[in-house]
Input
Amino acid sequence: MDNHQPTIAIIGGGVAGATTALYLGQLGLHCTLFEQEPSLISGPPFCHLHAGGNLYREISDTQCVTLLKQSIDFLRYYPFIIDYRPTVIAVPTTDSGSPEALLPRLQLLVSEYEALIAKDSRNKVLGDPQDYYKCYTKEAMEALRDKECLAHPQSLDEWMVPVAKEVDLEKVKFPLIIVQEYGLNLFRLASGVSMALEQIGNVTLHLQTHVTSIAYQNNRWHIGYEKAKKRYETVCDYLINAAGFRTGSIDNMVGVKEKRMVEFKAAYVSRWQEGKTHLFPEIIFHGERGTPQGMGQFTPYPGGHFQLHGMTEEITLYPNGLVASTPLSAQPKLDASFIRKIEQQWEWSEVDTRTKRAIRHIAQYMPDFQSAVTASKPLFGAQQIPGDDPTLRVAEVAFPANNYARCEIVKVSSALDMVDAIAKELAKGGWIDGNTIHSRDHHIIETLAETDIASKAEQIAASRGYPASMAGLNVTKY
Ligand SMILES: Cc1cc2nc3c(=O)[nH]c(=O)nc-3n(C[C@H](O)[C@H](O)[C@H](O)COP(=O)(O)OP(=O)(O)OC[C@H]3O[C@@H](n4cnc5c(N)ncnc54)[C@H](O)[C@@H]3O)c2cc1C
Output
């Protein structure tokens, strides 16, 4: 390589692209980040840190262990995005599975968590390993029913009180399990990562900028883009494709082929009036994906707002919502109705119908929740899944052409392993000194005030049409 400073172009300002810009920018590399939307992290949503993968009974232990490690890394890198609340796993009586079947994996996760702490005590971010999960019998839940719901629960028992009061204990199998899988706040990530990138002089951020063409000539990438209806071209040494569900369209421009899938999904935002404004844990009602009894996910936010997933085609999933690439195109083709939702807007009647179905889905197990109402448009989007296994949950990055990295994360916590792999590849190619790859300490994020992050996050939530309280900070560490 000649002795000019290498330049990096990153296409896509979602979690993958923005984290890459932040990490490589802090290594001193000159990065240009292209994002077609007006702000960063505006792709598909996320609300759950999969610190152990306990939402997915169908995935391997290996994927769960990787999700645990990646989630701990992610929490340490972006501590301000965590909504500190545990998750309750409930197996409905109508489900063929049993809660006991989940226990061997939980025990494995405890020992993996202990090993991570033994390696580095700063990994102890999910509390004491012995409290990673706890089981509750029916009798224990009945005993908690008469206790008061607290504004700031501190112990697992205190978190279980609203569950004991609201969940119909005849509709679930025992034990109920509570586990230290926390919430992830996408609005605070959008806010904090934008504030951090603004402070790095060697990162250029082009918002509302659409990359339209790519050509590799004389060992350099020529990138055509459109901004404010004008066309430009720039040249860089290394290209990073972090275009989310449009990764395939960038692969097509680069001229590489790859198998992948794209799935459109939506989660619905409801408000529970009736004074249910105290804190809840997240609650998962297991169920077989794609059937009418698909998993229900009840995700609490401040202000009585609850985000709901129902893994049925009537709620979160869609008929034809999962599409695959073809030998002719690396970009799977989503039906125009999904693209309309992503690029324009939803019909309010569909928002209301699907949100009401989601409320009914959860109310099967929490009868009083039937009184909840639609609060806003859904959180929705299409996500990429590399390869042809739709249950894959851990995926990172591939290097299918010279000086080209293609990011394809399925869970946001994979972003740091992804960018570590890119940094190693850059070091291998002589682009950076391997010894300078930072240890993720001394992070610019540490200089940002959480209150500033939170107030910008509230503005972002409101500007996107969501309740500002969904970005709020009043979910405290316990
Ligand atoms: C309903 C739903 C719920 C989810 N819940 C969770 C969860 O709880 N936890 C979790 O970990 N994950 C969750 N996910 C998955 C998670 O949202 C994705 O894995 C993650 O957001 C992907 O990030 P990304 O940066 O790869 O892609 P994206 O966020 O899609 O970013 C890609 C960006 O590239 C931009 N772009 C594309 N093409 C161009 C171009 N030509 N020029 C300029 N810009 C371009 C796009 O505008 C976009 O902003 C969920 C997904 C869905 C759909």
